[in-house]
Amino acid sequence: MSVLRRLYLYSALQNFANSLYSPFVSFVAASTGVPPLLLGVVSSAGTVFNNISAFLASFRRWRPLKLILFANAASAVALVLMAAFAEVHAAYTAMYAVVTASLGISGYGWSLIMEQYSRERRGISLAEFSFYSTLGGLVATLITGFLIRDDPLAIRLALYAAAALTAANTAQLYKLGIDYSEGPRAPRGGVGRRLLKFYAENFVFMVTWSFAWPLFPLAQVYVFHMTGLQVAIVQIITVASNLAFQRAMGRFVDRHMRLSLFLGRATFMIWPLVYGVATNVYQIYAAYLFYGFGGSISNIAYFAYVVDNAEDRRRAIGYFNLVNALGAAAGAELSSAVLAYMGNYNEELIRRMLVGTAFARLGSSLLFLL
User: Fold this and answer.
1) Does Transmembrane appear among the keywords (predicted)?
2) CB within 8 A of 332, min separation 6: which ones?
């Protein structure tokens, strides 16, 4: 098997493992009564701890494969502990934070490998890797959806399976022995005015984006009374839509970068708006058929913009991760603080907050046109 095919395999299997649990972690937390502030941590952990750990990893010239090996091993151990203490709210939250932090380090190592293998055709190459990665999650999401249909805590089995698969997949990648050839490191200095402006725009958007994250699982549980299987169906529609749009959006990004940056963010107003005004779960299913338009751009354009406008790509990626983390932490915890202050999860409050954040997302996305 060629090196490129082995990389596709790793991407698909890793996303399969992650998709066994990640679409359901916040839903399970909301279903089991995790308090608002901890729910904010859970719902934003995939961005906050993931990106902060990636930022810290960027300060040293690690070999990407070594980063992936040690980080994935830590993730597998944390997944086992998360399953063992799934009913203890603080432990469930803490172990998920460790999982996402470990995956952030692993993802940083993977992003360096992706940067090397996408240099000739950035948009199209990243779209192809994202396609195979996305493909790996379809079956996994459906499996866990059936598994937790009647009992959210049945996610324990998915967590154990994800730990085992992560360990096995990491072993097959490490045997490949590929390395990252960066060349001489750029002198230390500023990241450039263009990237500073981009980071500021992205921070503002991340606050509005993450404000809705604790609200989605609450809406699923307390407004629409969804089961684990229905949550899985939403995720599968999302994945299928991404697959349908992925390649075309890769070409679009290569030709229209600035417009892509705007559209990839602006279309994200749709999802909180739909949850805020929908009267049944089938309307949510219908709306998510079009998720792939903006979602596919988000999978490609922002990483491509950073690496194409940076002299020191490691530092640029690291700072991008930090900006995302700070914005996500601010938005999610602000939303959770409002929920904690109000003291209950009534339907009207959840819907109003969702509609408000939808228009805030649209407003902040206009910054990418300036």
Assistant:
1) yes
2) 40, 41, 43, 44, 48, 210, 211, 213, 214
